[in-house]
Amino acid sequence: MSKNWMFWILLYGSFQISFASSNSSIDIAMTHCCNIGSHLDDCSDKGIDKSVVNPPNGLCRSTIKFCCELSKIPRNCGQNFHEQFDQRCRGKTNEPKACCEGCKIGKFLSALNHTCDNLPINLSPSISQMITNCCTTATPRIVRKNTNSIACKLGYKWNRNLSKCEDINECMIANNGCYEDQKCENLVGSYRCIPKNICRDGFELDYETMECREWQSMIFDTICSNGFKMNNSSGICEDINECNENGNLCDQMCVNTIGSYKCMCRRGYRIVDDKCVDIDECKVSNVCSHYCMNVKGSFKCKCPNGMRIGKNKRTCEDINECEENKGICGKKPCRNFIGGYSCDNGVDCPENFKHHPTVGGRNTTKCIRKPCETSSCKLLPKYMTFKTLKFPSNMKLPKHGIPVFNIRTKSLKFEVDFKMQIKVLPKSQNVKIASINDFSIKKQPSRALVMLMKSLQGPQTIILKVDMINKNNLKVMEAFEVKIIVENE
């Protein structure tokens, strides 16, 4: 065995008994126990017992194992490992070993009233934080295996009614052995014996200097923590309401807390460098269906011509000009479409077609094929439907797009397929021309939806043609032609 190795063993033995004293002695002992572990080949209990003179106590043994395992396989246990300790470290597997022993170190430090941060061992931030979490979340009681007894830390006793460890007032037990000229002062988890007041009336013993000082003078000399001030009448440090005393602490809102204060912002703002800065909601997400205008602390949604804002103040809804203004077209028929209306006699049916009859008149947007004998005429679709729509340029769309129009298929007795074609009439060279990829057809049990999947730039006019084809004989049963007018914003 080398001289250096013997040196660490002797140091370990000399510091072993100091674990119950001050933080500094615990730090020194932990440092040397870690050095022992870093040099071990065998990290098991057998390896430790063979390599040291005296069997180590719990904290030192865990420190040796921890540093031994960590020197061989560096680990990142994660900040939430303290929540997994009971599940991963209570069985025979005890995996991962370095993380389990590190968490045990934190629990030992808590039991010894050691601070949970500023560990004496040089560790990575994540491992150090894991040990700190295990220390701060450790309970002061220890449940012993195979018995019903529960032991608390020194200076505490078990309260069955409250099911927790509580402080023992040692001074209630015959002054806890203090001398007659001393009085017992209870502390959390401990006590101390201090001299009784031997000063005349109006004076009190200052235990720092052991001098008699005037009681009122001692109150004035008392130093309160930051965020507190002395109440001269009661002699108690009271919280300072910084928000009331200084109205210029925060940019918008000041909230007082015990011993401090907190600056907050109104809705629609966020704190940047202690200042409340407006949040541009229009850039954060698709808050509006069409146009979004940012204002200080909020936003406003706007709609294109022929549409107005809905009840939720975010979605634009079509205005039915024909219903709301009955005489808007005079004697001509009024035809409403999304974003506008037209005053005309409807569409002009192409050759070999006529307007589809309806109850009391005719359908101005649907044509039916005339009876014909030629083979070329019979290949034409039985029906043709025409629609006109208006969309604003660069309209914001939801992830799954919006429906342009729907095709009913519920009453059909055969399976159908669809063929889509597009023709674009651009009105500016700087406009991104629409393509067939901007649209899709979504089949449903009783209908098919023609969807707009990407926003369109304007101005441009798009003619979208969709053929509904009978899969059995590949004939076009009905044709749809939609004129989409994309306007500038």
Automatic annotation (TrEMBL):
The set of disulfide-linked cysteines is 282-292
The way it spans or sits in the membrane comes to: Single-pass type I membrane protein
What species does this protein belong to? Polypedilum vanderplanki (Sleeping chironomid midge)
Q: Which family does it belong to?
A: Belongs to the fibulin family.
Q: Does the keyword Transmembrane helix apply?
A: yes
Where does the record place the EGF-like domain?
A: 278-317
Keyword annotations: Calcium, Disulfide bond, EGF-like domain, Endocytosis, Extracellular matrix, Glycoprotein, Membrane, Receptor, Repeat, Secreted, Signal, Transmembrane, Transmembrane helix
Q: Does the keyword Calcium apply?
A: yes
Q: Where in the cell is it found?
A: Membrane; Secreted, Extracellular space, Extracellular matrix
Q: Which GO terms of the cellular component aspect does the record hold?
A: membrane
Using the UniProt record, give the first listed, main subcellular location: membrane
Extract the GO molecular function terms from the UniProt entry: calcium ion binding
Q: Which positions make up the signal peptide?
A: 1-20
Name by which UniProt lists this protein:
EGF-like domain-containing protein
Any Pfam family the entry gives: EGF_CA
- What processes in GO biological process is this protein linked to? endocytosis
What InterPro entries does the entry give?
A: EGF, EGF-like_Ca-bd_dom, EGF-type_Asp/Asn_hydroxyl_site, EGF_Ca-bd_CS, Fibulin_C, Growth_fac_rcpt_cys_sf, NOTCH1_EGF-like, vWF_C/EGF_Fibrillin
Q: Which domain of life is it from?
A: Eukaryota
